[in-house]
Write a structure and sequence with these properties.
The longest helix is centred in the first third of the chain and has 78 residues, at 16-93. The chain is elongated, with a radius of gyration of 33 Å. Helix content is 19%, strand content 30%. It is of the alpha+beta class. Belongs to the WD repeat TUP1 family.
């Protein structure tokens, strides 16, 4: 045992504290190495993220520049093709070859088609043109509107989409979702972020079909070019067949019916139709024919005709188009006057969406897309007043029967009364009830006794105000879509309306009429069904025996207000009929269309044997 013990005493052993120290030093060295490596990785990550952020900023800047270049390119291309089309039309009018089919300018996805917030145009497509319009939106394809909605409220009517021809015009108007961001350069989403072309294309087909703002005139112009691109039929066709090719094509999604708009002119008996060189009329086979319609004058314009209006003596017709207003001699068809505000901005479009003569014929009032109302001295060819106050496009104008006040309706949801002599605003009727927000005003009218004001709007409503007290009287609800036109009957007992729901309605004014009884409210007496597309304009004949309506289906229809039946359908335009007006003194009526024409027609009460 002693030997073993001695042997263990002779074996050397390292101190325990020394080994622990060595291990700790090794761990510390490894930790420092790993910490240094992690720091290097963090630095590399920060540099990488900064580089990525810079690249994203550069890509966004390039994308924004591309959007701007795309918009500028399209605008230049559109102006170029419109100018070529205008020159070709002018050459054709002077006896040259017919205008060949031209390319249809397709608006780039997400970039919009003309002024926003417009009918149709009323006036839709204008904005329009239809608008309204929007007025294409409403006009041609309203404002459109606008037609566009074209765009009122900021789309139209076109004079679109627009409602009118394009939405109107009419557009306001009524602007579509996805409007431009600050500066109007890049389409923005609901969060204020730029929308990419891919997002625009993906969102284009989502959700319910959006109603046009007031049809806009730009939309109407595009529809006209699209129709030309579709081709023209040969010269072997009859005038009726040629007119039918552009006028009788059923609208997409419209169910065929037995209405006049769906009838084949070739199947109608000769005594129940009448045709001209490029127009025709079909009469209702179920009732006696009691009208004869003839084309008196065709008035060519260089842009969409958003509005037409006769003077009170019936001698003159005013037409409104892009940047200019013309006054024509009804007897000769010659242009008597050409009105253009030299102080208006020179860039871009400036469609005249509403015109109205004073009762004495001394003044002509015009309303335009720049939110201004201009009072022209007709004899002096000069501006008497410029009325400012509206915050959106002007879609409708009317004079009080005594000529002292001007009534205006705008996409800004207001109806305003102005003093003719001093140009001051007298009243402002605001649509601030609990109805839908999209309540841009598309059409306004004075009652024959000057005591009532009626206004149609995009929220499907018609509103009445008392002029003397400036108080609201009633909100009339009944149409299933935006109302683009209103007109009082000559006796003041009824109110007529036309809507994007393709119908007209006749309303009994009840206690608000001249012979109304206390307690009677406004009720719908008749619903007139027959148009295939948006009803953009309505009017009564001076004797109250006829109602005339113009539609995006390119037709004009005469109705008997007592029976609600249509007497005849006129097809004489190649685009939306944005505006109709009847002469106060003669059996003439006028039409304005997205096909860049206004036409004066005669309607004669003449029974024809069945």
């Amino acid at each position: 045992m002693s030997n073993i013990y001695n042997h263990r005493q002779m074996v050397p052993s390292a101190p325990l504290s020394s080994r622990v120290t060595e291990l700790l030093d090794a761990l510390r060295t490894e930790y420092d190495s790993l910490n240094q490596e992690a720091s290097s990785m963090r630095l590399f990550k920060d540099e990488y993220e900064q580089r990525i952020s810079n690249q994203i900023s550069e890509i966004q800047a390039v994308q924004q520049n591309l959007y701007e270049l795309e918009r500028a390119h399209h605008k230049i291309k559109q102006q170029y093709e419109e100018e070529i089309l205008r020159l070709r039309r002018e050459l054709e009018a002077r006896g040259g070859p017919p205008v060949p089919p031209g390319p249809f300018l397709q608006q780039p996805a997400g970039l919009g088609g003309g002024p926003q917030g417009q009918l149709p145009m009323p006036m839709g497509q204008p904005h329009g043109a239809g608008m309204p319009p929007g007025p294409g939106g409403m006009y041609g394809g309203m404002p459109p509107a606008s037609a566009a909605h074209s765009g009122p409220n900021g789309s139209a009517m076109a004079p679109g989409q627009g409602p009118m021809g394009g939405e109107p015009h009419p557009g306001a108007y009524m602007g579509p979702p996805g409007s431009y961001g600050p500066g109007g350069n890049v389409p923005m989403n609901a969060h204020g972020q730029p929308v990419t072309p891919q997002q625009q294309q993906q969102g284009a087909g989502m959700g319910k079909e959006r109603k046009p703002s007031l049809v806009t005139p730009q939309q109407a112009q595009q529809q006209q070019q699209q129709q030309q691109a579709a081709g023209q039929m040969g010269s072997r066709q009859t005038p009726t067949q040629q007119a039918r090719n552009v006028s009788m094509v059923p609208s997409k999604g419209v169910i065929a019916s037995s209405q006049l708009a769906d009838m084949d002119p070739d199947s109608v008996p000769p005594n129940m139709k009448h045709e001209g060189t490029d127009w025709f009329v079909i009469f209702n086979l179920k009732i006696p024919r009691s009208l004869n319609i003839e084309n008196v004058h065709t008035l060519d314009h260089t842009s969409v005709v958003c509005c037409v209006k006769f003077s009170n003596d019936g001698k003159y017709l005013a037409t409104g188009c892009n940047r200019t207003t013309q006054i024509w001699n009804v007897a000769t068809g010659k242009k008597e006057c050409f009105l253009a505000d030299e102080n208006a901005p020179k860039n871009g479009d400036l469609y005249i969406r509403a015109v109205c003569f004073s009762p004495d014929g001394k003044y002509l009032v015009t309303g335009a897309e720049d939110k201004q109302i201009r009072i022209w001295d007709v004899q002096k060819r000069s501006i008497k007043h410029v009325l400012s106050g509206h915050e959106q496009d002007i879609y409708s104008l009317d004079f009080s029967p005594d000529g002292s006040m001007i009534l205006s309706g705008s996409g800004d949801r207001t109806v305003r009364l102005w003093n003719l002599e001093n140009g001051k605003e007298m009243y402002k009727f605001t649509i601030d009830d609990m109805g839908p927000k999209d309540a841009g005003v598309t059409s306004v009218a004075f009652s024959p006794n000057g005591k009532l004001v009626a206004a149609a709007s995009l929220d499907k409503m018609i509103r009445l105000w008392d002029v003397t007290t400036a108080t609201p009287l009633q909100r009339i609800d009944g149409h299933k879509d935006s109302v683009y036109a209103v007109a009082f009957s000559p006796d003041g007992q009824s109110l007529l309306s036309g809507s994007l729901d393709k119908t007209l309605r006749i309303w009994d004014l009840g206690r608000y009429g001249p012979s109304g009884r206390p307690g009677e409210m406004v009720t719908c007496r008749s619903t007139l069904v027959g148009h295939k597309d948006f009803v953009l304009s309505v009017a009564y004949s001076p004797d109250g025996n006829w109602i005339v309506s113009g539609s995006k289906d390119r037709g004009v229809q005469f109705w008997d207000p007592r029976t609600g039946q249509t007497q005849c359908m006129l097809q004489g335009h190649k685009n939306s009929v944005i505006s109709v007006a009847l002469s106060p003194t003669q059996t003439f009526f006028a039409t304005g269309s997205g096909d860049c024409r206004a036409r004066i027609w005669s309607y004669e009460n003449r029974p024809v044997p069945m």
